[in-house]
Amino acid sequence: MVQHPVGIRSLAVNFPSIIRTNDYYREKYPQIVAQSEQKSLAKLFSLSDSTASNEFDLEMMPYLSDPFRGTVERRILAPGESSLMLEERAARDALDAAKLTPNDVDLMIVASVWPEQIGFGNAAFLAQKLGLEAAAWNLDGACGSTPLAIQNACALVRAGEYHNILVVISCTYSRFVDEDDTVSWFLGDGAGAFVVGSVEPNQGILSTKTLAASVLNDIGSLNINKDKQGNPQIRMQLSKDAKKIFSETAAELLYTCCDGAAAAAGVTMEEIDFFLFNTSTAWFARFATRVLSIDPERTLNLYPLYANIGPVLTVANLYHAAQLGKIRKNDLVLVYGFGAAGVASANLMRWGNVALGSDPHFKESDSPVKSFSDRSIICR
Fold this sequence. Notes:
Elements: E1 6-14, E2 18-21, H1 22-28, H2 30-34, H3 40-44, H4 55-60, E3 73-76, H5 83-97, E4 107-113, H6 123-130, E5 135-138, H7 145-158, E6 165-172, E7 189-198, E8 204-212, E9 220-226, E10 232-238, H8 242-265, E11 274-277, H9 284-292, H10 303-306, H11 312-323, E12 332-338, E13 343-350, E14 355-356, H12 375-378
Parallel strand pairs: 1-14, 4-5, 4-6, 11-12
Antiparallel strand pairs: 1-7, 2-3, 6-7, 8-13, 9-10, 12-13
Helix pairs in contact: 5-6, 8-9
C-alpha cells in the first residue's frame, strides 16, 4: 500500500542567552579542575584499566586526558529564562518558517526534559502561551523523544486524525545539577520545534524502529535534596554503574534501531546519505559510525558546541546539517535518539523542502568556535 507522504515541513532551534566555555570553570573552580580526575565526570567517563573493551571505550580513549571530556561550550539558562520560554521561541520560529499560525495547528506534541512545575508537562502551559486552542499533550521518551515524536506525529497525519502537528522538544539539564559538580560540565540547555504535515510525493518519513530502552533504566535518577537555605530542590544523580551500563548497551541499541529502520524501508546503510545521532558525548558520532561501519563524513557532531542537551541534540543536528548543506532535498537521512528509562528510536526519511527557522544567535566574542563550518570542531 502506498503511504500518504508525511514529513517535517519546518525546523527551528532556540538556546538560552548564557554561553559558558571551559575557561569559566577554570577561572571559577581552579581546584576542582585540577582535581577533576577524582570528580564525578571523570568517574563517569573513564576506564577501569588502560585498555578499551568495546567500541564505546575505544572512541572515548582520546578524550581521557581532557578534564572536560571534549566539551567546549554549553548554553545555560540565565535568571528569568525557563524551558517554557525556550519552547515558545522555538515553536513560534518553526511556525513562522512554515508560514503557519497557531490557528493552523490542530495538534501540538511537547517533550520537556524536564519542566519547571512538578507533576505536569509543558503542553498545556505552552498552548496557553501560543494561544493554541487545538489539542496539546505531553510525550515522554526521555532523550529518545525526538524520533519517537516524529513517528507519532507522522502516524497521526497519515491516519487523517490531524493535518498540521507542531512538535516541541526542550531540555534544561542545568537546573538539575550544581555547577560545582563536574557532571554539569557536559550538560546544557536548549529547545527545538518542527512542523509535521503532508509533503511532496516520495518524501517524508519512510520507516521507524523504536525499542524500550529499559536496559538504561538504572543510569540515573532525580532526587529531592535541600539547598543551603533548607529549601527542597531536585537534583540529577548518576549511578556509579552508569558508564558501564551505557558502554555495554549503546552499540546494540544503536544497531538494532538503525538497521531495523533501514530494513523496514528496504534500503541498505550504504544507500543512506546522512546520519544524525543523539550526540550525548563528544565521541558518540565516531562511535556510531564505527558500529554501523559508515564513513564519518556522513554525519555531524555538534556536541562540542552544545554539550549534552538531551533530545534537543537530534533536532539541533538536523537543523545545522540542513543549514550547512550537509543534507539536501531527496537525500535519505537517518535520525537516531535514545534515552535512559525512555526509548531508543531511529527514523529514516527522505529530506524534502524543509524551511529553517532563524539562525541561533551566538556571540563570537565569547566563543572559541567562530563558525559552524569549523570542521575540526563540528565534524570530528
